[in-house]
Amino acid sequence: MLSNVRIVLVQTYHPGNIGASARAMKTMGLEHLYLVNPRRFPDEEASRLAAGAEDVIANATLADTLDDAIADCVQVVGASARLRNLPLPHFDEPDGMAQTVIANACQGPVALVFGRERFGLTNDEIRHCTHQVSIPANPDYGILNISQAVQVLCYELFRAHRRALASPRQPATRQASLPDQQQLAHFHDHLHRVMTDIGFLTQPHARTEEHLRALFARAQPSRKELAILRGFLSAIEKDREARPPRA
What we know:
It is built from ten helices and seven strands. The protein is of the alpha/beta class. It has two domains: 2-166, Alpha/beta knot, CATH 3.40.1280; 181-242, Helicase, Ruva Protein, domain 3 (Orthogonal Bundle), CATH 1.10.8.590. A seven-stranded parallel β-sheet has the order 3-2-1-6-4-7-5. It is globular, with a radius of gyration of 20 Å. The N and C termini lie far apart (60 Å). It is an enzyme of class 2 (transferase).
């Protein structure tokens, strides 16, 4: 299950933080590191602070955009302070996040996304996630270095993984396949097109699409359910095309 979990670092400024994050990952059994537009990489400082996790550094995947790094993932969790103006599902406790991630990792790749040292993830980047998670900390000084945040969440994933291995085996039940982020993006593009065509999106300030994205993130539709929804949208388009134009 851990082999299906990737850590994504977005535009890391200090290469030493890449190395320290790689070390944090390896101590908890994770090996897949994705780097989105790092300022300097490869770099000797990254290798030095990896301190035994040089293989994680050497095998890191470079991506031009966050979309490229998460396109095939069935769940994407953005690590950030809770943003109440974004209606994404939010894990208030990392252990709850870890249990969900480990369960979903049985189906496909899952990503934990960490932002820049100075200001984290942008709102737009968080909108590309399916969930958010925060690390409870001292309210008077709750600032974690990025590699420390990686360590905390990787530890929770490792704990959840161990609990899953130690739990009594349940009778196998077939779990519906989850869509990846590319398939979800196609669905949301299709939904946007239909809502625009029928005149539903008349109040941009209502942030209707953000709330719908959050709704589908909470619902976690399967690939089959997503196909049904897209078929429904296609039927609406065909019906409108078949109607004679108004005089």
